[in-house]
Amino acid sequence: MMTDQLQRFLFDDFEIRGEITQAHETFKQCINNHDYPEAIANTLGELLIATSLLTATLKFEGKITVQIQGDGPLSMAVINANQNLEIRGTARYHGDTTGLSFLDLIGKGNLMITITPEDGERYQGIVALEKDSLAACLEDYFVQSEQLATKISLFADSQATPVQAAGLLIQTLPASSETHEEDFAHVCALANTIKAEEIYTLKNDELLFRLYHQEEVRLFGEQPISFKCGCSEERCLSSLASLDAEEIKEILAEQESIDMRCEYCATTYSFKEKDLQILLTADNQTPH
Ligand SMILES: [Zn+2]
Known about the structure:
The chain is α+β, with helices and mostly antiparallel strands.
C-alpha cells in the first residue's frame, strides 16, 4: 500500500521545480465520521492536497491555515497543517450540493492563506475565488503574490474505496529570469496528460518517468504526510473554563454531562459533574 507522502523534484535543464503528493489515508481520516456529501468531501480533499503543496513550497517553520469562505452551500472549508505535514481539516455546508460546480458550491468567496511561523510575523494572503476550480484559483494566487508561473493539479475522490487524494505542482524557480515560457508550457502540457488513476496508484518515480522520460528530472526524498488533530481533554477543559461555575452548574442541572465534539476529528469529549470539579471549585475560591 502507498503511504502518504510528498516529493519535490527539479528539472536539470530548465529553471523549473515540482512537487508530487499522495495522501489517501490522511484524506480518509479527514472525512471519517463526518458524512460529508460528495462535492463537499472532494473539495476538502483538494484543499488538503493544495495545503500540502503550499506547505512544501512556501517554506516556514510553524503553522499554515488554508481556508475557503463563501456565501454558497459550502460556507467554510479549512485545512490546518504544520511544517511536518501533520494535517487536519473540516468543512461547513448547508442545502443540497449534488452536482454543483466549484463556483456554485462556493458562491462569492475567498481563499485565505495564513502562515503563523514559530518565530517571526504572521503572514496572510487572500485571493478571490473566481476561477472554475480550486487549482486555477491557487495558480492565480502564485502569479499575484509571488509572480511565479505555477501549474497545479488537484485530484480527490471520496467515493472510491479506499478514498483517494493526490496532486502535482509545477513552478518556475524564484528569481529565475532564465525560465523560458516555452519550457514551462512544455512541462505543463505533459503534466496535463496525467490521469487521476495514474497519480493515485503509480509510484512518483514511475509517474515522472512516464511524463518526462525525455528530460533530466531529479527526485528528492519523501516527506511523510499524516493526519493529526491537536484536540484533547485538557483543551476542552480550558475552553470550558471561560464559563462561570454558575453557568456550568446550570447546564449540568439540565443534562447529565457536557459533551464537546471536535469539528476536525469528530471525537466527542464528555464531562460529568465529577470531571468538572476543578472548574466548579476554582470559582468558589474566587472572591466576589
Ligand atoms: Zn480533534
